[in-house]
Amino acid sequence: MRFVIERAKTYNVPKHIIDRAIEKAKGTGDENYSELRYEGFGPNGSMVIVDALTNNVNRTASDVRAAYSKNGGNMGVSGAVSYMFDNTAVFGVADKSADDLLEILMEADVDVRDILDEDGQAIIYAEPSDFHQVQEALKAAGIDEFSIAEIEMLPQNEVTLDGDDLVKFEKMIDALEDLEDVQKVYHNVDLSAE
Protein backbone atom coordinates (compact mmCIF):
# COMPACT_ATOMS: atom_id res chain seq x y z
CA MET A 1 0.00 0.00 0.00
CA ARG A 2 2.82 2.38 0.90
CA PHE A 3 4.44 1.70 -2.48
CA VAL A 4 1.23 2.57 -4.33
CA ILE A 5 0.79 5.82 -2.38
CA GLU A 6 4.43 6.81 -3.02
CA ARG A 7 3.98 6.02 -6.72
CA ALA A 8 0.86 8.18 -6.86
CA LYS A 9 2.71 11.06 -5.19
CA THR A 10 5.54 10.69 -7.72
CA TYR A 11 2.99 11.40 -10.46
CA ASN A 12 1.46 14.31 -8.48
CA VAL A 13 -1.91 12.63 -7.96
CA PRO A 14 -4.04 14.91 -5.74
CA LYS A 15 -4.57 13.78 -2.14
CA HIS A 16 -8.38 13.58 -2.47
CA ILE A 17 -8.03 11.12 -5.37
CA ILE A 18 -5.58 8.99 -3.37
CA ASP A 19 -7.99 9.02 -0.41
CA ARG A 20 -10.92 8.04 -2.65
CA ALA A 21 -8.89 5.14 -4.12
CA ILE A 22 -8.02 3.93 -0.61
CA GLU A 23 -11.70 4.00 0.38
CA LYS A 24 -12.65 2.11 -2.79
CA ALA A 25 -9.94 -0.48 -2.06
CA LYS A 26 -11.34 -0.96 1.43
CA GLY A 27 -14.69 -1.66 -0.21
CA THR A 28 -17.91 -2.47 1.52
CA GLY A 29 -16.82 -5.99 2.30
CA ASP A 30 -18.92 -7.39 -0.56
CA GLU A 31 -16.26 -7.18 -3.25
CA ASN A 32 -13.06 -9.17 -3.40
CA TYR A 33 -10.32 -8.00 -5.72
CA SER A 34 -7.72 -10.31 -7.22
CA GLU A 35 -4.33 -9.41 -8.63
CA LEU A 36 -3.77 -11.23 -11.89
CA ARG A 37 -0.96 -11.47 -14.42
CA TYR A 38 -1.61 -12.38 -18.04
CA GLU A 39 1.20 -13.20 -20.44
CA GLY A 40 1.15 -13.42 -24.18
CA PHE A 41 2.69 -12.84 -27.55
CA GLY A 42 2.25 -10.08 -30.09
CA PRO A 43 3.37 -9.83 -33.70
CA ASN A 44 6.84 -11.03 -34.78
CA GLY A 45 8.37 -12.17 -31.49
CA SER A 46 6.98 -9.44 -29.25
CA MET A 47 6.10 -10.43 -25.69
CA VAL A 48 3.58 -8.75 -23.40
CA ILE A 49 2.80 -9.00 -19.68
CA VAL A 50 -0.43 -7.52 -18.33
CA ASP A 51 -0.99 -6.88 -14.61
CA ALA A 52 -4.63 -6.46 -13.61
CA LEU A 53 -6.67 -5.90 -10.46
CA THR A 54 -10.23 -7.14 -10.76
CA ASN A 55 -13.35 -8.11 -8.90
CA ASN A 56 -14.46 -10.29 -11.85
CA VAL A 57 -11.75 -12.69 -13.03
CA ASN A 58 -13.81 -14.14 -15.89
CA ARG A 59 -14.63 -10.72 -17.36
CA THR A 60 -11.03 -9.55 -17.15
CA ALA A 61 -9.61 -12.75 -18.67
CA SER A 62 -12.09 -12.49 -21.53
CA ASP A 63 -11.31 -8.79 -22.13
CA VAL A 64 -7.54 -9.37 -22.10
CA ARG A 65 -7.82 -12.41 -24.40
CA ALA A 66 -9.93 -10.36 -26.84
CA ALA A 67 -7.45 -7.46 -26.82
CA TYR A 68 -4.66 -9.89 -27.70
CA SER A 69 -6.49 -11.86 -30.40
CA LYS A 70 -8.16 -8.92 -32.17
CA ASN A 71 -4.75 -7.31 -32.68
CA GLY A 72 -2.59 -10.17 -33.94
CA GLY A 73 -1.56 -11.55 -30.55
CA ASN A 74 -2.13 -14.69 -28.49
CA MET A 75 -2.60 -15.02 -24.76
CA GLY A 76 -0.23 -17.60 -23.31
CA VAL A 77 -0.12 -19.60 -20.10
CA SER A 78 1.34 -18.35 -16.85
CA GLY A 79 5.13 -18.20 -17.16
CA ALA A 80 5.09 -18.19 -20.97
CA VAL A 81 7.05 -14.92 -21.24
CA SER A 82 7.83 -13.69 -17.72
CA TYR A 83 11.07 -15.67 -17.66
CA MET A 84 12.34 -13.25 -20.35
CA PHE A 85 11.81 -10.24 -18.05
CA ASP A 86 13.58 -9.13 -14.85
CA ASN A 87 11.50 -7.84 -11.95
CA THR A 88 13.37 -4.64 -11.03
CA ALA A 89 12.99 -1.59 -8.79
CA VAL A 90 13.66 1.51 -10.92
CA PHE A 91 14.28 5.07 -9.73
CA GLY A 92 14.88 8.13 -11.89
CA VAL A 93 16.61 11.11 -10.31
CA ALA A 94 17.24 14.42 -12.08
CA ASP A 95 20.02 16.84 -11.08
CA LYS A 96 22.29 14.09 -9.73
CA SER A 97 24.89 12.04 -11.52
CA ALA A 98 25.17 8.27 -11.31
CA ASP A 99 28.42 8.71 -9.35
CA ASP A 100 26.72 10.99 -6.79
CA LEU A 101 23.91 8.49 -6.27
CA LEU A 102 26.32 5.56 -6.04
CA GLU A 103 28.19 7.38 -3.28
CA ILE A 104 24.94 8.14 -1.39
CA LEU A 105 23.79 4.53 -1.61
CA MET A 106 27.19 3.10 -0.64
CA GLU A 107 27.30 5.33 2.46
CA ALA A 108 23.83 4.04 3.38
CA ASP A 109 25.04 0.46 2.77
CA VAL A 110 22.39 -0.16 0.10
CA ASP A 111 23.16 -2.56 -2.76
CA VAL A 112 21.86 -1.87 -6.27
CA ARG A 113 22.16 -3.69 -9.58
CA ASP A 114 23.27 -0.68 -11.62
CA ILE A 115 23.16 3.11 -11.86
CA LEU A 116 23.31 4.76 -15.28
CA ASP A 117 23.14 8.29 -16.66
CA GLU A 118 20.33 8.27 -19.25
CA ASP A 119 18.52 11.14 -20.96
CA GLY A 120 19.70 13.82 -18.53
CA GLN A 121 18.91 11.88 -15.37
CA ALA A 122 20.39 9.08 -13.31
CA ILE A 123 18.52 5.76 -13.33
CA ILE A 124 18.94 3.33 -10.44
CA TYR A 125 18.18 -0.39 -10.91
CA ALA A 126 17.77 -2.49 -7.75
CA GLU A 127 16.19 -5.67 -6.44
CA PRO A 128 12.43 -5.24 -5.89
CA SER A 129 12.85 -6.28 -2.26
CA ASP A 130 15.20 -3.28 -1.79
CA PHE A 131 12.73 -0.71 -3.16
CA HIS A 132 11.97 0.95 0.17
CA GLN A 133 15.58 0.73 1.36
CA VAL A 134 16.79 2.60 -1.75
CA GLN A 135 13.98 5.13 -1.49
CA GLU A 136 14.65 5.81 2.20
CA ALA A 137 18.42 6.20 1.60
CA LEU A 138 17.75 8.75 -1.14
CA LYS A 139 15.22 10.63 0.99
CA ALA A 140 17.70 10.71 3.89
CA ALA A 141 20.14 12.40 1.47
CA GLY A 142 17.54 15.06 0.66
CA ILE A 143 16.27 13.55 -2.60
CA ASP A 144 12.49 13.33 -2.47
CA GLU A 145 11.48 13.92 -6.09
CA PHE A 146 11.72 11.05 -8.55
CA SER A 147 10.86 11.00 -12.23
CA ILE A 148 10.44 7.23 -11.82
CA ALA A 149 9.89 5.23 -8.63
CA GLU A 150 8.41 1.88 -9.62
CA ILE A 151 8.84 -1.84 -9.69
CA GLU A 152 9.01 -2.77 -13.37
CA MET A 153 9.29 -5.90 -15.48
CA LEU A 154 12.25 -5.07 -17.73
CA PRO A 155 12.84 -7.18 -20.84
CA GLN A 156 16.15 -9.04 -21.07
CA ASN A 157 16.15 -8.53 -24.85
CA GLU A 158 14.20 -6.10 -27.00
CA VAL A 159 12.81 -6.57 -30.49
CA THR A 160 12.17 -3.95 -33.17
CA LEU A 161 8.95 -3.97 -35.16
CA ASP A 162 8.08 -2.07 -38.30
CA GLY A 163 5.27 -1.71 -40.82
CA ASP A 164 2.09 -3.70 -40.16
CA ASP A 165 3.66 -5.51 -37.19
CA LEU A 166 4.31 -2.21 -35.40
CA VAL A 167 0.79 -0.92 -36.15
CA LYS A 168 -0.81 -4.15 -34.85
CA PHE A 169 1.41 -4.14 -31.77
CA GLU A 170 0.59 -0.53 -30.88
CA LYS A 171 -3.13 -1.21 -31.34
CA MET A 172 -2.85 -4.26 -29.07
CA ILE A 173 -1.03 -2.27 -26.35
CA ASP A 174 -3.60 0.54 -26.58
CA ALA A 175 -6.46 -1.98 -26.33
CA LEU A 176 -4.88 -3.62 -23.27
CA GLU A 177 -4.13 -0.31 -21.53
CA ASP A 178 -7.69 0.89 -22.15
CA LEU A 179 -9.18 -2.02 -20.17
CA GLU A 180 -10.59 -0.84 -16.85
CA ASP A 181 -8.97 -3.58 -14.74
CA VAL A 182 -5.49 -3.34 -16.30
CA GLN A 183 -2.96 -1.69 -14.01
CA LYS A 184 0.26 -2.03 -16.03
CA VAL A 185 1.43 -3.42 -19.37
CA TYR A 186 5.04 -4.48 -19.96
CA HIS A 187 6.57 -5.49 -23.30
CA ASN A 188 9.86 -6.18 -25.04
CA VAL A 189 9.44 -3.90 -28.06
CA ASP A 190 11.91 -1.06 -28.59
CA LEU A 191 9.57 1.82 -29.41
CA SER A 192 12.43 4.35 -29.47
CA ALA A 193 13.33 3.03 -32.94
CA GLU A 194 10.17 4.56 -34.47
TrEMBL record:
GO-annotated cellular components: cytosol
Gene Ontology MF terms: DNA binding
Domain TACO1/YebC-like second and third: 33-189
Annotated transmembrane regions: none
Keyword terms of this UniProt record: DNA-binding, Transcription, Transcription regulation
Domain of life assignment: Bacteria
Keyword flag Transcription: yes
Any matching Pfam family: Transcrip_reg
UniProt keyword annotation of DNA-binding present: yes
Family per similarity comment: Belongs to the TACO1 family.
Name of this chain's protein: TACO1/YebC-like second and third domain-containing protein
Native source organism of the sequence: Listeria aquatica FSL S10-1188
